[in-house]
UniProtKB/TrEMBL annotation:
It comes from Neorhodopirellula pilleata. This is SMP-30/Gluconolaconase/LRE-like region. GO terms for biological process: L-ascorbic acid biosynthetic process. One of its GO terms (molecular function) is calcium ion binding. It holds the Pfam family SGL. Residues 26-293 form the SMP-30/Gluconolactonase/LRE-like region domain. Belongs to the SMP-30/CGR1 family.
Length: 332
């Protein structure tokens, strides 16, 4: 990472992906796959009134995208262990509506294994999440984006138990796990409307988190922090900024974990609503993939933001592609 005081500005390049209005509505959750140059991403919903979304597989070598419709709106999807003859996953663990389950790409079947997420409240669905070994940590979102009633959960693999960590979020996003110098687990988390990136001590065995510590304060920023990933060395946070107004570009930013200083900005021309980043290895180099969205834009807004909903690819200074370790769920 560049540790000078100068902020690097990079221009990301728009792909011709997705190629349909339904898929460009709300792309999120890009995740590198174990096959070089491949990633998955989710279409959260296929239009403002749609009640379903999709899992997508994208080949950055050819820009070919394959889409698989889900029975509801997904918040996240991660490949399960095991691949086909082409080296691609055939099963994904996903959070869809208020269920956790396994989606099989070969027969397009959906098999839930946890169905009582956020059962104490109404009008919420599963949003962003992460995989850590055989555990899932994920949050939900209030569909009205108004009430502090959305949950933050641990699905603990060792006993298949769903544990509520918080129940007072609005739109739970940007989840990462890191290990500090003393070997303790830390959960980095974003509740988007707070405009704060925070960190908790995480104890998976006990099923608890500690008090929140602010890492990055964006309360004076016009944009809203959405999805995020750690840098390969774990010393920085790359966060996509959802700017809910017309602008000539959007931003995904790299902040230093220790100081909170802004180190790099990737601009997305013609697409202000950045949703999620992913670092993807291709041909020995590390690329930044950024999802963006059309959500909430009028027809006039879309004319002014012609690349809204497209995926973008940006260059990085991360040199060791072997440090890009895809998240794979150890399905039981």
């Amino acid at each position: 990472m560049n540790h000078s005081n100068e902020t690097i500005v990079r221009e990301a390049v728009a792909l011709d992906v997705p190629d349909s209005d339904s898929l460009r509505f709300l792309p999120e959750g890009p995740i590198p796959l174990t096959k070089d140059g491949y990633l998955s991403w989710v279409g959260i919903q296929h239009g403002s009134s749609a009640k379903h979304g999709s899992i997508n597989l994208l080949d950055l070598n050819t820009n070919e995208n394959r889409s698989f419709d889900l029975p509801g709106r997904p918040g996240f999807a991660f490949a399960c262990d095991g691949v086909d003859n082409d080296g691609l996953p055939t099963r994904f663990v996903a959070g869809v509506e208020r269920e956790l389950g396994i989606f099989d790409l070969t027969d397009r079947s959906w098999k839930p294994f946890q169905s009582d997420v956020d059962s104490a409240v109404t009008n919420t669905i599963i949003n962003d999440g992460l995989v850590y070994e055989d555990n899932l940590i994920f949050g939900t979102k209030d569909l009205a984006f108004a009430e502090k009633k959305a949950g933050l959960y641990l699905y603990r693999g060792q006993d298949q138990k769903l544990i509520a960590l918080r129940n007072d979020q609005v739109c739970s996003n940007g989840k990462m796990i890191r290990v500090d110098d003393s070997g303790r687990l830390k959960l980095v988390d974003i509740d988007s409307p707070t405009r704060l990136i925070v960190e908790y001590d995480l104890d998976i065995d006990a099923g608890t988190i500690g008090e929140a510590r602010v890492l990055v304060d964006l309360t004076s920023d016009p944009g809203v922090p959405d999805g995020a990933v750690l840098t390969p060395e774990g010393d920085g946070i790359i966060v996509s900024i959802f700017l809910p107004t017309v602008a000539d570009h959007g931003e995904t930013r790299l902040y230093d974990l220790a100081t909170g200083n802004l180190r790099c900005v990737w601009r997305t021309p013609g697409s202000p609503q950045n949703t999620c980043p992913a670092l993807v290895a291709k041909s020995g180099r590390v690329h930044l993939v950024i999802t963006t969205a059309v959500e909430n834009m009028s027809a006039e807004d879309q004319e002014k933001c012609p690349n809204a909903g497209r995926l973008f690819v940006g260059e990085t200074n991360f040199e060791d592609a072997s440090k890009i370790v895809p998240s794979v769920y150890r399905a039981r």
